[in-house]
Design a protein that fits this description.
408 residues, alpha+beta, six-stranded mixed β-sheet, 9 helices, 23 strands
């Protein structure tokens, strides 16, 4: 039985075309009727999150991610049905439920009670909450004097101390420093291993693929895709860059163009420049993409993702890193984008994805080449990882400085 299920969830807001800000305006125009526009934030969303699943929600700004999370939490009323089986703990917006005039202790106890703990339990967990948030020196300070990072540390610490079966988390962790984010990730790993159900909204596709079992992608309030995190991350990249992804048949080239450019072909070469269907491990290799521009472009760039058989991106590179100003190219001109690297890929079959972008006011995808070409990496053996890095291994006795270096 699912821990969280949604069926036909829709949410509509009424936005006033004009607002009355002062009492004088109201007195001068008592009969003025305010007209409203209807904004549909969510449109017929249905999904189910299984018990113990780490479920991601991705989408661009304004796509409805946070609105959906608030509907699940019961903050917003919505059309359709939502079921939650188990105690909910939410970390949706920074400072929600906090009284800025109270000190940390009072806020921790009040928030714990609101999340379902008894007053005795809330007081008992206060010390562990403050310790995890690393705020021992500021426990008597009013929250209005806390920085945003201190507030989010306190809010996250309260949320994870409730022992809820279902945890709803929005992207508030982005304000934490790197050390605290890693601490949160360690908690995520522990919760994932313990079989907690977590619904997690994020823009970070690396985090999405690192933690989530499944994910869904929203765009303008509609469900675009639900499935494996790698699939959702790939489509999110397309939407974020302004492209549209269409389903293609298995093994068929996926090549989309807005008309400004076209990726004509993609291939790999060995260090002698020979096109090969299979590249031995340990050699330098080059992936090339031949592009034709249909219009004049300024400083185009290409991104390369190499996916393994599990559809995981194991190599990602962009021409922009070394060539942010690639030059001006005229309509009809053909260009080669080349990516050269030491082949440390584990033995297996790989499929490159090439995304071509052009910069205007924002970066927009003008073509995408995927699934039209694969290549094989060969080796005598495999260590079992996604890559096989050359490694120097030292073996020496504890009482002797002599070391025997083993090199692959």
């Amino acid at each position: 039985m699912p821990a969280v299920a949604a069926r036909g969830v829709s949410k509509t807001f009424q936005l006033p075309e004009q607002q009355v800000h002062t009492l004088k305006e109201r007195a001068l125009h008592p009969r003025r009727r305010i007209r409203y526009q209807t904004f549909r934030a969510l449109n017929d969303i249905s999904f189910a999150v299984q018990s113990g699943e780490f479920f991601g929600i991705a989408g661009r700004n304004g796509s409805g991610k946070s609105t959906l999370l608030k509907c699940i939490a019961g903050i917003y009323k919505c059309d359709g049905d939502i079921w939650c089986r188990g105690r909910l703990s939410t970390l949706i917006e920074l400072g929600v439920g906090f009284n800025m005039e109270l000190a940390a202790r009072d806020n921790v106890i009040l928030n714990g009670i609101m999340m379902g703990l008894s007053p005795k339990e809330a007081r008992k967990r206060y010390d562990s909450v403050i310790e995890f948030a690393e705020l021992e020196e500021f426990r008597e300070l009013k929250l209005k004097n806390y920085s945003s990072g201190m507030q989010v540390r306190l809010a996250f610490s309260v949320a994870i101390q409730v022992d809820a079966e279902i945890l709803l988390i929005d992207e508030v962790l982005a304000v934490g420093d790197a050390a605290f984010q890693q601490k949160c990730f360690d908690v995520f790993h522990a919760m994932r291993s313990a079989g907690k159900t977590i619904v997690f909204v994020t823009h970070d596709m690396g985090t999405l693929q690192r933690f989530c079992h499944r994910a869904l992608l929203l765009e303008r309030g509609s469900l675009v895709h639900i499935g494996q995190p790698a699939e959702v991350a790939d489509q999110y990249l397309e939407l974020n860059f302004g492209g549209q992804q269409e389903p293609v048949g298995e093994g068929q080239p996926e090549n989309e163009s807005g008309g400004d450019a076209r990726v004509l072909e993609v291939w790999v070469e060995d260090q002698e420049g020979r096109r090969l269907p299979a590249i031995p491990q340990g050699q330098r290799m080059t992936l090339r993409a031949r592009v034709r521009f249909m219009v004049d472009v300024e400083d185009p760039e290409a991104g390369m993702h190499i996916h393994n058989e599990d559809l995981k991106a194991v190599v990602i590179a962009s021409s922009w890193v070394q060539h942010p100003h690639s030059g001006r190219f005229v309509a009809g001109e053909e260009v080669l984008f080349s990516f050269t690297f030491q082949n440390v890929l584990a033995p297996g079959r790989y499929s490159p994805v090439v995304v071509l972008g052009a910069r205007g006011s924002v970066l927009s995808v003008v073509d995408r080449f995927a699934r039209g070409f694969t290549f094989l990496v060969t080796a005598t053996g495999a260590m079992g990882g996604a890559v096989d890095l050359p490694t120097d291994v030292a073996i020496e006795r504890a009482d002797s400085p002599i070391a025997h270096e083993l090199k692959p």
